[in-house]
Amino acid sequence: MSIVERQPPLDATERAAIAELIAHYPTARAAAIDSLKYVQQRRRYVSDGTLHEVAHLLGMSAAELDEVATFYNLIYRKPVGEKVILLCDSISCWITGRDQLAAHIHQRLGIRQGETTADGRFTLLPIVCLGDCDHAPVMMVGDTLHGNVDTAALDAIFQPAESDTP
């Protein structure tokens, strides 16, 4: 499935929310990360057009805001699925079975790292560390952290998610 990268311009509600975020800081630029996170929460990713609009609201160039956005690996600049699966690829997770989990995700959902399911529900992305090494292997699905994950746990995680209706 090809997810179209076009997004409509920011609407009045989104502009007002970003203005409210800006009001919490001594300068508009200081609201850059919060503004990007807000847009992503509403739209799943920050398109080029949206980045330009937000940059204008913050009094920044699009290049400056893009530097902020691309520095943080959890600000998505390309379309992602409804739920992002972050699979830790630290040494702790690798030693404890991370590659087997990646293979099982591929078998179960038909996607590899960097890919999105055909229905647009899931995107699988690697992440350097989720900071829960004592529970390796670790992954996040959406905002939920899962530790000590094996293939049975993975099946349990995805079974309810797969049965949800979009």
TrEMBL record:
Entries under CDD domains matching the protein: TRX_Fd_NuoE
Cofactor(s) required, per the database record: [2Fe-2S] cluster
Any Pfam family: 2Fe-2S_thioredx
Co-factor note (free text): Binds 1 [2Fe-2S] cluster.
Keyword presence, Membrane: no
Keywords: 2Fe-2S, Iron, Iron-sulfur, Metal-binding, Oxidoreductase
Ligand binding ([2Fe-2S] cluster): 88, 93, 129, 133
Tagged with keyword Iron: yes
An MF annotation (GO) of this entry: 2 iron, 2 sulfur cluster binding
Database matches in InterPro entries: NuoE-like (IPR002023), NuoE_dom (IPR042128), NuoE_N (IPR041921), Thioredoxin-like_sf (IPR036249)
UniProt cross-references to NCBIfam families, sorted A to Z: nuoE_fam, PRK07539.1-2
Family: Belongs to the complex I 24 kDa subunit family.
Protein's name in the database: NADH-quinone oxidoreductase subunit E
Gene assigned in the entry: nuoE
